Amino acid sequence: MDIQEVIKASKGLGEWAHIATVSNSGTPYVTPVHPCWEGEMLWIMVGVNSVKSKNINHSPSVSLHWQVSEETSFDSLIIWGQAELFTDVETKTRLWSGVFDYDLNMFAPNGPENSPETGFISVNPIKAVILKEMGIGERLVWRSQ
After folding, report:
1. Which of 20, 21, 23, 81 has the fewest CB atoms in 10 Å of its CB?
2. Closest to 120 in 3D by CA, of 93, 72, 85
3. Which regions of 6-75 does DSSP assign to beta strands (E)?
4. What is the DSSP-derived secondary structure letter of residue 136?
């Protein structure tokens, strides 16, 4: 399996995933997100003061899970990776149009230049597992080289 199959699986499972981060006290934190791909990099729009942003600054290791549902034959996807928070205007401007499949202005109406409270988390995938029929059908594994 290659990364393109992972990307295709994520898009087939829907636009929502859950990201797991860990706080500096070791407490796990899981929250829903709407990640989008730019090439082989996942991006998530966030508030720079959100718990997930603070956790990533402490520990960049994350996991994302696209959940099972009847509509997807109970398939799911888990991606592990290294995350980084970006708040610079250059990155925000690049991502603002063309990467996300929703209008970012709904959440930050002042645009990339005038939304200091808005940032983006990149997730560089290092491992992914596709579980067909909750893992009963097949388990496909991808690892970065």
Report:
1. 23
2. 85
3. 17-22, 28-33, 36-38, 41-47, 61-66
4. T
User: 3-143: which CATH topology?
Assistant: Pnp Oxidase; Chain A (2.30.110)
For the chain, give the number of residues: 145
Q: pTM for the full model?
A: 0.92
- What's the pLDDT score for residue 145? 80
Q: Where are the domains of the chain?
A: 3-143
Q: What parts of the chain have a pLDDT lower than 50? A: none
Element (H, E) at 54: helix 51-58
Tokens of 110: 């002042």
Phi, psi of 90 (to 5 degrees): -60, -50
Q: How far apart are the first and last CA of the chain?
A: 12
Alpha carbon 57 to its chain centroid, in Å, reads: 16
Q: How far apart are alpha carbons 126 and 60 in whole angstroms?
A: 12
Q: Which amino acid is at 3?
A: I
| Helices vs. strands in the chain: H and E counts, helices first | 3, 8
